[in-house]
């Protein structure tokens, strides 16, 4: 294994350990010693990659969206639906994404800047909405930046409600309901009629992304 | 002061202290000793009102909606808008409501049942939607229970995003944006056209409720 690959793997192991400890203990209570013990790496290795607990938390926060990709579609609104459904699917199945979202929603981590995921997700959705607007898919009065914030904020709450009530079991149904309430205020009726947004959409898109990443990475738009 | 009044006041002081400690330390890290010190009451007084830390937390969670009232309106959709705007206003101005909402959103308080506020708010909104439906204010396909869940979940996330990005300074604008995106999928256009939902609506309704509670409590519908 090349030196660089090893460094990437070590960084990943440390982040996974940090995510686990933040999730179990909360950001405030978690300590670097606990993260070291969980990761099973040396203090030197940890400090080579991360300067502080804050730095580790920002690394975990990055994980929910930094590798975010969605397949290109003729209809840009479908890309937005796919992005939302894929994120919901990853929340259900990927412990790292789950830990990152919980950390972003930790209103008690007062000294940690948790705005990153909100702002980056809003930026991704805004760009997709601008693409949809350029293609005439949106209603005429829409301001992409404000609509993007509504999508991101409301999704954050829907996932939190689903986690609280059913530990994410009812997440897909709740996300479908949210989209059915938001889209008629945003997109042209003919566009909405063409959208795929059933509960299984997230899993379908996830498999498609995995396949494309292996065989045809150029077909993936980086968010 | 009558014995009962004194008991109510003591209970309230303990809840305020608990809210403050949960807010500062997080639910998991908070201890009953800290709450005792903050409240300045005896151990006996605390245990007379609350059996455990869990019990204290449920008391704080109750506070965000148990005294919830909104003035009667001819248009039921206006009552829903008023309920949402009033809650946003109380979040900005009332430390107890703020602490209660943060505790409900604390995804790390794993052993605490935080579903209460979600379910009770959803129930309040569902009842108002059923009233609106009976008056013909809603679009024909609406299922009040599912739409209520979308309102409650999305509001929870919008407030969290506002707290994270601006410490609630931009809350009213974000809540207005959310309502403008949800209402067209729920209510008849002629109903929406009649609604008051500017950023100052929460403060206006709050003053009205205070006035009515003093002079004409029967005009307030308990949620």
From TrEMBL, chains A, B:
<dbReference type="InterPro" id="IPR009057">
    <property type="entry name" value="Homeodomain-like_sf"/>
</dbReference>
<dbReference type="InterPro" id="IPR001647">
    <property type="entry name" value="HTH_TetR"/>
</dbReference>
<dbReference type="InterPro" id="IPR023772">
    <property type="entry name" value="DNA-bd_HTH_TetR-type_CS"/>
</dbReference>
<dbReference type="GO" id="GO:0003700">
    <property type="term" value="F:DNA-binding transcription factor activity"/>
</dbReference>
<dbReference type="InterPro" id="IPR036271">
    <property type="entry name" value="Tet_transcr_reg_TetR-rel_C_sf"/>
</dbReference>
<feature type="DNA-binding region" description="H-T-H motif">
    <location>
        <begin position="31"/>
        <end position="50"/>
    </location>
</feature>
<keyword id="KW-0238">DNA-binding</keyword>
<dbReference type="InterPro" id="IPR050109">
    <property type="entry name" value="HTH-type_TetR-like_transc_reg"/>
</dbReference>
<keyword id="KW-0805">Transcription regulation</keyword>
<dbReference type="InterPro" id="IPR047923">
    <property type="entry name" value="ArpA-like"/>
</dbReference>
<dbReference type="Pfam" id="PF00440">
    <property type="entry name" value="TetR_N"/>
</dbReference>
<dbReference type="GO" id="GO:0000976">
    <property type="term" value="F:transcription cis-regulatory region binding"/>
</dbReference>
<protein>
    <submittedName>
        <fullName>TetR/AcrR family transcriptional regulator</fullName>
    </submittedName>
</protein>
<keyword id="KW-0804">Transcription</keyword>
<feature type="domain" description="HTH tetR-type">
    <location>
        <begin position="8"/>
        <end position="68"/>
    </location>
</feature>
């Amino acid at each position: 294994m090349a030196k660089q690959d090893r460094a990437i793997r070590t960084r990943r192991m440390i982040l996974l350990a940090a995510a686990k400890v933040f999730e179990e203990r909360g950001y405030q209570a978690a300590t670097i010693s606990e993260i070291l013990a969980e990761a099973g790496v040396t203090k030197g290795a940890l400090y080579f990659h991360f300067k502080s607990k804050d730095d580790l938390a920002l690394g975990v926060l990055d994980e929910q969206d930094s590798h975010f990709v969605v397949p290109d579609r003729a209809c840009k609104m479908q890309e937005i639906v796919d992005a939302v459904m894929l994120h919901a699917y990853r929340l259900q199945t990927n412990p790292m994404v789950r830990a990152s979202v919980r950390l972003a929603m930790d209103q008690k981590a007062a000294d940690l800047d948790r705005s990153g995921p909100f702002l980056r997700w809003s930026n991704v959705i805004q760009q997709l909405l601008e693409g949809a607007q350029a293609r005439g898919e949106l209603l005429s009065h829409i301001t992409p930046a404000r609509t993007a914030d509504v999508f991101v904020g409301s999704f954050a709450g829907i996932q939190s409600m689903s986690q609280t009530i059913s530990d994410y079991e009812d997440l897909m149904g709740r996300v479908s309901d949210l989209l059915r309430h938001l889209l008629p205020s945003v997109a042209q009726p003919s566009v909405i009629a063409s959208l795929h947004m059933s509960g299984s959409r997230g899993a379908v898109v996830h498999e498609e992304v995995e396949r494309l990443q292996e065989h045809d990475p150029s077909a993936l738009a980086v968010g």
